[in-house]
Amino acid sequence: MRKILVFGGSFDPPHLGHCALLLSAAKTLRPDGILIIPAYRAPLKNPAGASAAHRLKMIHSGLLPSLPASWRRITRLDLSEINGKRRVYTVETLRRLKRLHPKAELHFAVGSDSAADFHRWRDPESLKTLSRWWAANRPGHFLAARDLTFFKRLRHAMPDISSTEIRSRLALGDGARKYLAPAVHAFIKRHGLYGENLPDRLKTQIKSRRFKHSLAVARLAEQLARRWGLDPAKARLAGLLHDCGRSIPAPDMAGYAQRRRLAVPFLAAVSRRQPLLCHAYVSADIARRRFGVSDPAILSAISKHTLGGRSMSALDRLIYTADAASTDRNYPEAKKIRALAFQDIDAAFRACVRQKLCHALSHDAWIHPLTLQLWNSLQK
After folding, report:
1. Cβ neighbours, 10 Å, residue 104
2. Which contiguous run of DSSP H or E holds residue 353?
3. How far apart, in whole angstroms, are the C-alpha atoms of residue 162 and residue 286?
4. Which of 22, 223, 252, 269 has a Cα at 20 to 30 A from 98?
5. DSSP assignment string, 146-208
6. How far is CA 319 from CA 135, 221, 258, in A?
7. Residue 24 CA to its chain's centroid (Å)
């Protein structure tokens, strides 16, 4: 019977782990045909970081060339999911392939992290009958016994790489060259995908210590977002840019806010007493104008990370907490609050507000009315 190897995913971006998995499956199966099926939007993932057009070009330049010429000749890109411009479930795709190739045997290859999530896929029982399933372990992501009941193992070694980690490294300026085909890395850099050039731009605009703090906040925000089911990319970007307004000298911040007509609560009092308290609103404005951030949720989180707000979203509270408890903070309670944030994010948020009030009181400082309102609202 004719064998078709099916290889689907977001490929956001395609990396050397994808290449290794595809090669392993092809060597093991010796298929008669290979179908690479990029998703328009994967059902269990956040929206793609790169457009479908960009991901397709990276597949052409990075994933396809990794195959030997003899296998490239039997490989084709199936663009049905992308052309559909909607979330397509794997069970839909496999049913379509069964109709197109009724006499073929389908074999679907995935990584161990995807295999571990198989029970969350749409109609897993039907999936088991539509295709044979293959999985490969990567270091630190081994399949549990319950995951191995119908998955066959690919025995070749896999690199410890994931698209999620690569996007994070690119967005935080940590470098990802060794995880990507040279052509894919060059493409990402040329088009500024995944915020790859943003850290370098930010570094030129704020002081070194402030930049290191911004990286620390972004990393903690991303970790907390994963823990609590929020969008890691939004949290990371809000954390990275939360202090970009510190490029404006503190004495000039109130004037900037007035000229830009920013909605800083009690601006007149802030101007007289503590102009630096404008910096969160200035940061949101600069994030929008200089860095092209248009997402209202991200801009809201940036603007509320210092004074809070009368109503705060889960992302607002997360960024407020990440800023107050980032790894570069050296006040005694920071480490405890940071640990608490992974256990109870609401309790950590309250602890951060309390800490800010205690700090202000210990220095006989003026307390902004919005912060007092926030604390009082938390007592209800």
Report:
1. 16
2. helix 345-362
3. 32
4. 22
5. GGGTTEEEP-S---S--HHHHHHHHHTT---GGGS-HHHHHHHHHHTGGGTTHHHHHHTTS-H
6. 37, 6, 25
7. 28
- What does the alpha-carbon distance between residue 154 and residue 110 come to, in Å, rounded to a whole number? 10
Q: Mind giving me the DSSP string for 13-45?
A: S--HHHHHHHHHHHHHH--SEEEEEE-SS-TTS
Which residues, at least 6 apart from 13, have a Cβ–Cβ distance to it below 8 Å? 50, 55, 58, 62, 163, 166, 167, 180, 184, 188, 193, 194
Q: Give the max Cα distance, the chain.
A: 81
Say how far apart CA 38 and CA 42 lie, in whole Å. Answer: 9
CB-CB contact of 251 with 274 (8 Å): no
> Domains in the chain, start-ordered, CATH in brackets?
3-161 (3.40.50.620), 207-378 (1.10.3210.10)
Rounded CA-CA distance 287/291 in Å is 5
Average predicted confidence (pLDDT) for the chain: 92
What CA–CA distance (Å, rounded) separates 213 from 218?
A: 9
Separation in Å, CA 369 to CA 92, 308, 354: 55, 11, 14
Give the residue from 101, 113, 111 showing the smallest Cα distance to 133.
111
Cis peptide leading into residue 13 (ω within 30°): yes
Paired strand residues for 151: 133
Q: What is the DSSP letter of 74?
A: T
Query: Which residues, in sequence order, are bridge partners of residue 33?
Result: 4
Give rounded-to-5 percent helix, strand, coil for the chain. Answer: 60, 10, 35
Q: Tokens in use for 59?
A: 């597949």
Specify the DSSP class assigned to residue 141: B
Tens digit of each residue's pLDDT (9 = 90 or more) over 75-120: 999 999 999 999 999 999 999 999 999 999 999 999 888 888 888 8
For residue 194, the model assigns a pLDDT of 93
DSSP-based three-state secondary structure for 5:
strand
Gap between the Cα atoms of 295 and 298, Å rounded: 5
Q: Render pLDDT for 152-180 as a digit per residue (tens, 0 to 9).
A: 888 888 888 889 999 999 999 998 999 99
3-state SS class at 301: helix
Q: Distance between CA 366 and CA 269 in Å, rounded?
A: 10
Cα–Cα distance measured from residue 49 to residue 168, given in angstroms and rounded to the nearest whole number = 11
